[in-house]
Write a structure and sequence with these properties.
This protein is mostly beta strands. Helix content is about 5%, strand content about 40%.
Length: about 260
């Protein structure tokens, strides 16, 4: 569904619960490399059912709206979401600029295999890797969630993932996609550290953490974490990392629904 994301108040973010799906993901992205990007793409594992995308804000600190957004299967059976044509005129994303995109799926997770900046012609910028992990939120008991982080990135060079500022909040209603952002000051004020707040995952590694909070039916758990260019140094050539790096703040949300579909 396309809608031009506008600058909303925190109250509007919190009241827009109808946008919350089984799994919601949004990301603040800043181009910290030396190469100008134009678009961004994410590869999800398998035939993922994407129910909605968030295509950018029309104003504010993270403004940048993408007019052409595709959600297509790949030849090898995966799903690619590609945000292109910012502002309708292929506006660039030069080093230092920032954007915000996201998506919802009908199940309880998105298995992220790859994420990268793309060029004006839509191709991957050489060496580009936007660091990320796959997240899943489950409810093995009715009100006590578990968060799982999986590093299954299928990049050409093995990359160690460092997650920093890992935090969470319980909100009374699920937030709309545009509410999952650092621009939502009410949400950011509610966040508290999860565990030690920093985790490192090698390729193929997973970690699961009990969330020390009660999430009642109808409430939502929001988990936030940062990834950045520094973690790429363990696996990417320095030139490629500096040319295509990004700092990212990731937002994941799952609503604890009656007859929970996330066991």
């Amino acid at each position: 569904m396309k809608s031009l994301g506008m600058k909303l108040s925190g109250l509007a973010f919190l009241l827009a619960a109808q946008g919350a799906a089984a799994y919601d993901y949004n990301v603040d992205l800043r181009n910290t490399g030396t190469t100008t990007a134009y678009d961004v793409a994410v590869v999800l594992d398998g035939a993922e059912t994407v129910t909605n995308t968030f295509d950018g804000y029309g104003s504010g600190a993270w403004d940048g709206y993408f007019y052409d957004v595709s959600n297509q299967p790949t030849a090898d059976g995966n799903t690619v979401i590609h945000w292109q044509n910012m502002w309708g005129n292929n506006s660039p994303i030069p080093p230092g600029d920032q954007i915000h995109v996201g998506w919802s799926t009908s199940d309880c997770h998105s298995t992220i295999k790859d994420m990268y900046w793309t060029s004006k012609t839509g191709g991957r910028i050489r060496g580009s890797v936007i660091l990320n992990v796959s997240t899943g939120i489950s409810y093995p008991t009715p009100t006590r969630p578990v968060i799982r982080f999986d590093h299954i990135y299928a990049t050409e060079v093995a990359v160690r993932m460092e997650l920093t500022n890992v935090r969470f909040a319980v909100v009374n209603q699920g937030l709309s996609l545009e509410g999952l952002t650092s621009a939502n000051q009410e949400l950011m004020a509610q966040l508290r550290p999860l565990g030690q707040g920093r985790f490192t995952l090698d390729p193929g590694q997973s970690i699961s953490l009990d969330v020390p909070a009660t999430v009642n039916a109808g409430q939502a758990l929001v988990v936030v974490y940062d990834t950045g260019a520094t973690a790429a140094k363990a696996g990417l050539a320095a030139a490629a990392a500096s040319a295509s790096s990004a700092l990212a703040t990731h937002f994941t949300q799952v609503v604890n629904r009656p007859n929970n579909p996330c066991p």
